[in-house]
Structure formats: structure tokens, C-alpha cells
């Protein structure tokens, strides 16, 4: 794909803003839209062409990337922009949304004579800024091939996971497992505290024993053993509890919709939804402080 390819970019928030900026840096013409004036100003400073409506950004573009808060907004916006696009335009939705919504978005695009991929990401705001996101992509192989050069600019790893919706499936499966493993790890840490096991000794044993996990060795939820983990920075995110709660609710919906007996996944969604009511802005690893408090101990 040449840099003559015109890109429409809709949703210039914490993630979309830096992702669009990386495409501009790589030499692409980016037609950008977001209703929020501060996001528009930043995109202008980053070198994008900010236009007045989403439809205007789409009409002149070959590929349209969306990075939006939720599935309802994606579907509503697709209703507005699909009729405005040139035939065969490739729509790449990078938002984290319900698998069913992602499939519906792809069907709407196809019915309007266009092509679509779901391409949710992990890696957070830091990954978006550094261009090191992981993309999990669902859709046709030929459409994946067309989007790949752009995804490789914004990402460090790009995986074609399967057909429409399967990118979102990979995202929620991974994050469900991460949420579950962080809760399980935190319960074990608090139990260890009650039984006189120090954090250092817990780490020393478990990090090389059968209870080992990424949550422990790369993201330890208590200060000390892993210096870069948010626990050492008053649980400043990192990956905010609000986002973990959102992803776990999507996973719980998918468990139910597909008849999976996912008892721990459902419970993890409930636990993070409750924690999110008080601590939405804290890193999700702060769940250990909640478990400790609910176990009658101070932080
Ligand atoms: P954000 O709220 O910062 O950005 C969303 C942007 O979409 C906002 O600027 C908003 O004004 C804009 N928007 C809303 N309606 C619009 C419309 N109709 N047209 C154009 N723009 C519109 O959210 P974010 O943190 O950038 O997250 C975006 C998506 O990425 C979410 O689905 C989130 O779950 C996912 N995600 C976020 C992170 C993270 O660490 N922030 C990590 C992985 C995935």
C-alpha cells in the first residue's frame, strides 16, 4: 500500500489520538474527526487534517479506522458513515466491543458494499504512543492483508485471529483470563499475609512454582518484587479498573450468549464491576487492596 492511501480516523481519544499521529508520522494523509474540541486541536497539532463531520472524513478515504468507547457508538456511527463511503472502502474498528456487535458491524459494512475488520488492541496508551500495540484481527484474509501495513505502523504485533468478530474474541478471552488470574493471585497474597508469608517470600516461591503467572512476574499487585508494576506507584494505571470491568462484562456477556459454563469469568465480571464503582481510576491490580479491606485488614 502506498502512502497515497487516504485514511479516515474517527475517535481521537487516549488511544486513537496517538495512533492517528503515528500514521501521520509514517507519511499518510489522515482525515480525522472527533466531536471533542481538545481532541481535534491535538490531532491538528499532530499533523492530521481535521474535518467537520465523520461522513466528510469517510467520503474521501480508502481505509477508515475507528477507535470509539463502545459497540453502541460504533454501530450508530457505522449507520451514519457507511452510506457516505466510496464502494469497497475498508473499515477497521479498533475499539473493544461485544463480539456480536463486531459481527453486526461487519454485516452492515458488507451490505453497504464495503469491507470490514475488527482489530481490537492491547498495550494501552503507552503502546499507542510508541506504536507497539498488539492487534487481534478478525475478518477476511485479503482485507487483513490490505490493512496490515497500517496496523504494523501502529503496532508491534499483529495477529489475524479468524473471521469477523474473532479479533474481539481473542481480546476478551485474554482479558477474562487476566482478570481472573489477578483476582486469584490477590486472594493468595492476602491469604499469605494472614498466615505470616511475606511478599518477598511469596514471590520467591510462586514465581518459579506451579502458581506462576504473568500477573505475578510482570505486574505484581503488591509493591516491591516487580519495580515497574503500578503497585509501586500508588496503583496509578497501567490498565484502569474501568477498562478491566468493561472487558469482563463483555466476556461475561459472551459466556452467556454462547452457553459456556464460565462461572469464574462471570464472578470476575461481578467483582471488578463492584470495585469499579469506587476505584474506576485505579489500576486493576489494586483489587488486592479491596480483597485485603474486605478481609478485615488495612491497606
Ligand atoms: P477515549 O474515551 O479516550 O476516546 C474515545 C474517543 O471517541 C473520544 O475522544 C470521543 O470523543 C470519541 N467519540 C465518541 N463518539 C464519537 C463519534 N460518533 N465520532 C467520532 N468520535 C467519537 O477512549 P480510549 O481510552 O481511547 O479507548 C478507545 C477504545 O479502545 C475503547 O473501546 C477501549 O475499551 C479500547 N482500549 C483502551 C485502552 C486504554 O488503555 N485506554 C486499551 C485497550 C483498548
UniProtKB/TrEMBL annotation:
PROSITE patterns: 3_HYDROXYISOBUT_DH. The active site is at 171. It comes from the Bacteria. Its EC number is 1.1.1.31. Residues 165-288 form the 3-hydroxyisobutyrate dehydrogenase-like NAD-binding domain. Pathway: Amino-acid degradation; L-valine degradation. GO terms for biological process: L-valine catabolic process. Coiled coil: none annotated. Residues 6-162 form the 6-phosphogluconate dehydrogenase NADP-binding domain. The keyword Oxidoreductase applies. The keyword Oxidoreductase applies. It holds the Pfam family NAD_binding_11. It catalyses: 3-hydroxy-2-methylpropanoate + NAD(+) = 2-methyl-3-oxopropanoate + NADH + H(+). GO terms for molecular function: 3-hydroxyisobutyrate dehydrogenase activity; NAD binding; NADP binding. Keywords: Branched-chain amino acid catabolism, NAD, Oxidoreductase. SUPFAM superfamilies: 6-phosphogluconate dehydrogenase C-terminal domain-like, NAD(P)-binding Rossmann-fold domains. PANTHER family: 3-HYDROXYISOBUTYRATE DEHYDROGENASE, MITOCHONDRIAL (PTHR22981:SF7), 3-HYDROXYISOBUTYRATE DEHYDROGENASE-RELATED (PTHR22981). Belongs to the HIBADH-related family. This is 3-hydroxyisobutyrate dehydrogenase. It comes from Nocardia aurantiaca.
Amino acid at each position: 500500500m502506498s502512502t497515497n492511501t487516504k485514511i479516515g480516523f474517527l475517535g481521537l481519544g487516549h488511544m486513537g489520538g496517538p495512533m492517528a499521529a503515528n500514521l501521520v508520522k509514517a507519511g499518510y494523509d489522515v482525515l480525522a474527526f472527533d466531536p471533542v474540541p481538545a481532541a481535534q486541536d491535538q490531532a491538528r497539532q499532530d499533523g492530521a487534517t481535521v474535518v467537520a463531520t465523520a461522513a466528510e472524513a469517510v467520503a474521501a478515504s480508502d481505509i477508515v479506522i475507528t477507535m470509539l468507547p463502545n459497540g453502541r457508538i460504533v454501530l450508530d456511527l457505522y449507520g451514519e458513515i457507511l452510506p457516505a463511503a466510496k464502494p469497497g472502502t475498508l473499515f477497521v474498528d479498533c475499539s473493544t466491543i461485544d463480539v456480536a456487535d463486531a459481527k453486526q458491524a461487519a454485516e452492515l459494512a458488507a451490505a453497504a458494499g464495503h469491507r470490514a475488520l475488527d482489530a481490537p488492541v492491547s498495550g494501552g496508551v503507552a503502546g499507542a504512543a510508541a506504536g507497539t500495540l498488539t492487534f487481534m484481527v478478525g475478518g477476511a484474509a485479503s482485507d487483513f492483508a490490505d490493512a496490515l501495513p497500517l496496523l504494523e505502523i501502529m503496532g508491534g504485533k499483529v495477529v489475524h485471529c479468524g473471521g469477523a468478530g474473532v479479533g474481539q474474541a481473542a481480546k476478551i478471552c485474554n482479558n477474562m483470563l487476566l482478570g481472573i488470574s489477578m483476582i486469584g493471585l490477590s486472594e493468595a497474597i492476602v491469604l499469605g499475609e494472614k498466615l505470616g508469608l511475606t511478599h518477598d517470600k511469596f514471590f520467591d516461591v510462586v514465581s518459579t512454582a506451579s502458581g506462576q503467572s504473568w500477573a505475578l512476574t510482570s505486574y505484581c499487585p503488591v509493591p516491591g518484587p516487580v519495580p515497574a508494576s503500578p503497585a509501586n506507584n500508588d496503583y496509578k494505571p497501567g490498565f484502569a479498573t474501568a477498562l478491566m470491568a468493561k472487558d469482563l462484562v463483555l466476556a461475561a456477556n459472551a459466556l452467556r450468549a454462547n452457553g459456556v459454563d464460565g462461572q469464574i469469568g462471570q464472578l470476575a465480571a461481578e467483582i471488578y464491576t463492584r470495585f469499579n464503582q469506587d476505584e474506576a481510576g485505579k489500576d486493576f491490580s489494586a483489587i488486592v487492596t479491596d480483597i485485603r479491606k474486605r478481609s478485615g485488614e488495612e491497606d
